[in-house]
């Protein structure tokens, strides 16, 4: 049974501005494993990755019904499987989860479905 669905839309340029202005932003949003992936990427792809993780974590918190605050960005980890599909590798949710991240132009959208 689906118990929650969250979506988030994020402007990649807005994420880039915050990243360039605030040195601690990256460590606040990404786990150490996500950060390792981020540093392997170059240029525009880095910002798309960061914005995608931000959006996926926001979508997760919305699906859970808490929003970011009771659940932090560090409580949620989004990695990619061998085929490149994102999945929640860490979260406070015990059930099944489904994650989708899509990029188009300067925007990234994420959707998370939580199933009990």
Your description of this structure?
- The protein is of the alpha+beta class and 116 residues long.
- The chain has a single domain, classed as 4'-phosphopantetheinyl transferase domain (Ribosomal Protein L22, Chain A), CATH 3.90.470.20.
- The protein contains four helices and five strands; from the N terminus they run E-H-H-H-H-E-E-E-E.
- Helix 1 crosses helix 4 and helix 3 runs antiparallel to helix 4.
- The chain is globular and about 40 Å long.
Keywords:
116 residues; Ribosomal Protein L22, Chain A; three-stranded antiparallel β-sheet; 4 helices; 5 strands; globular
Summarize the structure.
The protein has 116 residues and is α+β, with helices and mostly antiparallel strands. It has 4 helices and 5 strands.
Helix content: 25-40%
What is the total domain count? 1
Strand content: 25-35%
Find the CATH superfamily: 4'-phosphopantetheinyl transferase domain
Indicate the multimeric state.
single chain
- Strands of the largest sheet, in order across it? 1-5-4
What's the arrangement of secondary structure elements?
Elements: E1 2-11, H1 12-21, H2 25-29, H3 32-40, H4 44-64, E2 77-80, E3 86-90, E4 96-104, E5 107-115
Helix pairs in contact: 1-4, 3-4
């Amino acid at each position: 049974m689906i118990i929650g669905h969250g979506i988030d839309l994020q402007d990649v340029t807005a994420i880039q501005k915050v990243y360039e202005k605030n040195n601690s932003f990256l460590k606040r949003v990404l786990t150490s494993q996500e950060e390792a992936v981020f540093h392997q990427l170059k240029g525009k792809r880095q910002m798309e990755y960061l914005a995608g993780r931000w959006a996926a974590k926001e979508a997760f918190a919305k699906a859970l019904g808490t929003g970011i605050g009771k659940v932090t960005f560090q409580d949620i980890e989004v990695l990619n499987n061998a085929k490149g599909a994102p999945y929640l590798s860490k979260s406070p949710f015990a059930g099944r989860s489904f994650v989708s991240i899509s990029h188009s132009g300067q925007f990234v959208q994420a959707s998370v479905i939580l199933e009990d």
